[in-house]
Amino acid sequence: MRNLRVKRSLQAGLLVLAVFLFLAADNDARFRSAGHKLMCVCGCNQVLLECNHVGCTYSDRMRGELAANIDRGDSEDLVLQSFVQKYGPTVLLAPTTTGFNRVAWIMPFVALLAGLFLVHHVVRTWRHRPAPALADGIQPATGEQLEKFRNQVHKETEE
User: At what angle do helices 76-87 and 57-72 cross, to 10 degrees?
Assistant: First the structure.
């Protein structure tokens, strides 16, 4: 009976340890996920977890705030929203897809389509432009005449 109690106590202890390890792993994954959606506000324009700015006072503080929010059990959206409220919308690595920020997602495609349309229009205009008009009704040279002129130029430049 005593062995059974010891065995059950060890199993319970292992179960508790496993739960804490999985929670820590989950918190670490959430920390990395949220940290890669934020930018450091020191001006280095790097991802918060990738900031290698020498002497950066912001990244350590922001990482600490992020870890505290994750440990407190806040959802990722709540964490990101708290950073937006504290540091402004520029702290987000990618703009949100709501409101006026949709323009930031749509404009690159609109600009690409407008550029393609402009290139198509210019090429089409150049391809269909009229032949240049010659003065006094002179007709352009035909193939035989061009060959005659080429031979004459070749003969004159050799001498």
Answer: 140
Q: What is the pTM of this model?
A: 0.49
Q: Count of alpha carbons within 13 Å of 55, Cβ hemisphere only?
A: 0
Let me know whether 1 and 73 are in one domain: yes
Count of domains observed in the chain: 2
Tokens of 80: 């990101």
Residues 56 and 111 in one domain: no
Answer yes or no: are the C-beta atoms of 48 and 66 closer than 8 Å. Answer: yes
d(C-alpha 146, C-alpha 11), whole Å: 99
Average pLDDT over residues 27-32: 79
Structure tokens given for 45: 């324009």
d(CA 38, CA 74): 16
Q: What tokens appear for 77 in the block?
A: 């959206």
CA–CA gap between residue 49 and residue 67 (Å, rounded) = 11
Residues 58 and 39 sit within 8 Å (Cβ to Cβ): no
Task: Dump pLDDT digits (tens) for 53-108.
Answer: 777 788 788 888 888 888 888 888 888 888 888 888 888 887 776 777 788 788 99
